[in-house]
Specification:
This protein is mainly beta. The chain has 1 helix and 29 strands. The chain has a domain at 2-22 and 41-247: 6 Propeller (Neuraminidase), CATH 2.120.10. A 5-stranded mixed β-sheet has the order 1-26-25-24-23, with no helix packed on it. The longest helix is centred in the N-terminal third of the chain and has 7 residues, at 2-8. The chain is globular, with a radius of gyration of 18 Å. The protein starts with a helix and ends in an 11-residue tail after the last strand.
Length: 336
């Protein structure tokens, strides 16, 4: 199995040259959605609608518990103002088995009573939520990555403490579940460095993990790329993709490519607005659009109606914009 994994996820551990390509313009679907500007929210494309779940307004009030949905990214409807979950800052959210799922996350910013969660919630309609379990087997955490793979939900890494922890809070364990209640630890040490604020996607029959790191008290950011066929055995595809190391970015799979969008760097300290894609995790191309969104971090990303979407995020100030990108047919012709 290890030999097979190495063959399919060939490790290239040298810095790679950046490629650039002109792309179509992004379209601003709305400058101000109905929901209050925010970042760090849960996000799901589910039953023909975009969904926004909770998020972050500032570090000195409890995170919002509202749920919003939209059929087109322009018109948004408040589904519920007070969902029963509390930990909606940097939660993990996913559509799975005809339900939306919300789990983990952080509550109360820097205020007394702050905590991470390992509760798992689900809903069919965004209004009525069921707590599937109050305490999953994985430790309370936020800013983990989550994917659906082989008929199961997978939690990868994360941190147990947002503002007050240290590197010991960071995780590189992998857990999976078919029902959200019964979780199996696939590995306690996935091979990639413990991290949070990273992203994972499923592409080409494998789970991919990239970027992320640690926020405080010691900043650390990665731009490495890893892949796995089983969630247990991992291969490093590159230790330095051409995009800058970053936290708080978004990722998606669109038109057969993995995408990295925006984020934040402390060294140098800046929001990022770059857009990258790759079919193999090793060779990355920067998409350069003449019209695009302002640099930001902790925005939501969706794939919906054959478009790539972003919503909200911290664009200095917080944003409630919604943008979409549509690639013409044949855009990747000649690249494969």
């Amino acid at each position: 199995m290890r030999l097979k994994l190495f063959t399919l996820c060939l490790a290239i551990i040298v810095p790679l040259a950046a490629a650039e390509r002109p792309g179509p313009d992004w379209v601003r679907e709305t400058p101000a959605a109905g929901w209050q500007a925010r970042d760090s929210m849960g996000e799901v494309a589910y039953k023909g609608r975009l969904w926004i779940l909770g998020g972050w307004f500032n570090s000195f009030e409890a995170p919002p518990r509202d749920v919003w949905s939209s059929p087109d990214g322009k018109i948004w409807r408040l589904v519920t103002k007070q969902a029963p979950w509390l930990h909606s800052d940097l939660p993990m959210s996913i559509p799975f088995r005809n339900r939306m799922w919300m789990m983990g996350g952080w509550y109360n910013g820097r205020l007394p009573g702050h905590s991470a969660s390992n509760a798992v919630w689900s809903t069919e309609d965004g209004a009525k939520w069921k707590r599937v379990t109050e305490h999953a087997r994985w430790s309370p955490r936020l800013a983990a990555a989550i994917v659906e793979f082989k008929g199961r939900m997978w939690i990868l890494g994360g941190t147990e403490d947002y503002y007050f922890g240290d590197e010991r809070s960071l995780k590189n364990d992998v857990w999976s579940s078919a029902d959200g209640k019964n979780w199996r630890r696939v590995t306690a040490n996935a091979g990639w460095a413990p991290r949070a604020y990273h992203q994972a996607v499923v592409h080409g029959g494998r789970i991919w993990v990239f970027g992320g790191g640690n926020y405080v008290p010691v900043y650390k950011a990665f731009n490495d790329v890893w892949c796995s066929e089983d969630g247990e055995h991992w291969t490093q595809v590159t230790d330095a993709a051409p995009w800058m190391p970053r936290l708080w970015f978004s990722a998606a799979v669109y038109r057969g490519r993995m995408w990295v969008l925006g984020g934040w760097s402390k060294v140098p300290e800046m929001n990022l607005g770059d857009v990258w894609y790759s079919g193999d995790g090793r060779n990355w191309t920067r998409l350069k659009s003449k019209v695009t969104w302002k640099e930001r971090h902790e925005h939501s990303a969706f794939v919906f109606h054959d478009r790539l979407w972003i919503a909200g995020g911290h664009a200095r100030p917080l944003s409630s914009e919604v943008w979409s990108l549509h690639l013409p047919e044949g855009f990747f012709a000649g690249e494969d």
